[in-house]
Design a protein that fits this description.
mainly alpha, about 140 residues
Length: about 140
């Protein structure tokens, strides 16, 4: 009877050990799966936040660009009438006055020409800025 009890206890201990091993393997797998899922979910959420930030930044840059152009135009045009609200129209009108023998000083025409050239240069510089350059600078700052 002693051997029988010993065999039963040994069998029970082996059974418990095997079940413990199975349970440990199952829990380890479940934990690993949950961890991988959490990392993937966090990465997806981070990607979404980065995409939103990029989109918001693009919109802010576009809005600031448009506002800067509008402010520059307002500053340059002032309250000029519609027929004289561009540098070309103003320069053409001054050229007509000069051609008609008006005593409009050449300095005014030169100054208008200089201002037009400056405005054209500013416009060219603004148009030369690409969205990709801004994205690259943002990414460098964000990741740096």
């Amino acid at each position: 009877m002693s051997d029988n009890l010993k065999n039963i206890l040994n069998g029970f201990a082996q059974f418990v050990g095997e079940k413990d091993k199975e349970l440990k393997a199952s829990l380890t797998l479940n934990i690993e799966t949950a961890k991988n899922g959490a990392v993937e979910s966090a990465a997806t959420a981070a990607d979404a936040k980065i995409a939103t930030a990029k989109s918001d930044l693009k919109q802010e840059i576009q809005t600031a660009y448009e506002a800067a152009i509008a402010a520059l135009k307002t500053e340059l045009v002032g309250g000029a009438s519609e027929e004289l609200d561009t540098f070309k129209e103003l320069a053409d009108e001054l050229a007509k006055l000069k051609a008609d023998g008006s005593d409009a000083p050449a300095a005014v025409l030169a100054k208008v020409t200089e201002i037009k050239q400056t405005a054209d240069a500013v416009k060219a510089e603004l148009e030369a800025v690409t969205l990709q350059e801004l994205k690259d600078k943002f990414a460098a700052a964000f990741n740096g």
